Amino acid sequence: MIDPEKEFVMPLIHLNGSGRERLLREYEAASETLSAFIESWRDVTFHPRDYYPLGDSAWDQARADRMEMSERLSDIKNYIDIHLQSIFSDNE
To answer: How much of the chain exceeds pLDDT 70, in percent?
Structure first.
């Protein structure tokens, strides 16, 4: 999980850098794509019946692994959203 105290370095909109509209378009596209993937990820069948032949602890470990991966996806989505907020607020 992203440390709430962590401050990321945000891109600076300036004459020699990438344009604000381009960055917004690209970060928005990344956000939408990742949101669609996260939705698909949630829809993937995940059930104990697929793990019990592997032993008593397999389901618990699989659940822990899946939760960790879901948290990483959420962290990436938050990172993108932080960038979007920064780019939006640069123009205000």
So the answer is: 97
